[in-house]
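hey so u asked for the seq, here:
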Amino acid sequence: MDMLRGGTVRRRFTLLYAAGFLGSGTVLLALSHLMSGTRVTGIAPGQLPDGGSGGSGGSGGSAVAAEQQIQDLQRQLAEIQGQQGHRLLVGSLFALLVMAGLSLLLGRVLAGRVLRPLRMITVATRRISAANLHERLAVAGPADEVKELADTVDSLLERLEASFAAQRRFVGNASHELRTPLATMRASLDVAVAKPEPAAQTIVLAGRLRTELDRLDRLLDGFLVLARAQHGALAERTPVPLGGLVAEALTARAGDIAAKGLTVEGVDGAGPPPWTRGSAALLSRLVENVVDNAVVHNQEGGWIRISAGQDDGRVRLVVESGGRVLDQGQVDRLAQPFERLSADRTGSEDGSGLGLSVVAAIVGAHGGRLALRALPAGGLGVTVLLPAAAGPDGDAGVAA
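ran it, structure tokens below
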């Protein structure tokens, strides 16, 4: 029973078919064995065939001799029948073993034949992703259970396509509709401050509002990038130098790194320089967010260790930052939107709570993997693995 409950469906079908065939063959052989037996009728001592009886003299001696011959014949016949029964039993057991092997083979063939349409549906469903939701299985054939399953999957894909299209429209509309009022508010603040001799309270209020508008603008930008990455809307895939993106991100945050007195340790990756393929804008945002996370949530006078390399057909970006000892269970949730550890790590008002969730979405859209780990000595380690690609000149590219 455990073998039937575990394993693949094909294995279970094979065992069920084989058990059915083997059981039927066993019953058939048993019936044949029972029906092939014959019953020998013995002659009572003192009786002769054809109604003869023992007489006197020579006839009595002949009767005794005839009776002895009959008994000998009966004994020989019994021995022959016993030998035949033994041979029949041995032959039946051999036939049963052969039938067991044939039952397994035939069961596997039949199971594969029955499951072939399901495998085709599985392969076709795996091929369909967010980029080609318009495709359908369109299984032809009789209106059986397999076609009903395929039609159900097609109906599900149709609903998913409509849902993805609606969300993509929302992302496109939000990019325009939500940025317009932000730009209007910024312009109004600039007009209020630009008036002759503005009040001091007006200047202070304008500064606070401009800070909140900047924060809202970063939050909106994070939402849009997150939605774009989660829906796999990669307009183009080009070779991108991962090392170059790291250098650009560090240059952009050089002022903040110096203000906090952070020490940046660059470790060159082993192997060829790291190049990957994908959206240059999204990958640049990925590296920026990882570096920003290491700078913003670091301690004064702390350290940042960055390495980028390529091995086993994948490029690897590792960014480690110092800090207090973190709980791994909480770190595992940082890739979710608005997940934060505690106020002492996220006390900065510069963060939107979307940084690592955007990183996770971009990594997933490029077929990569993100790993977050709490460092034993304190701090956070972020590891990004992406598919490797050749540079524009056919080589690995230029390292940072």
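The first helix runs from residue 2 to 5. Residues 38-56, 343-349, 396-400 have pLDDT under 50 and may be disordered.
lmk if thats what u needed
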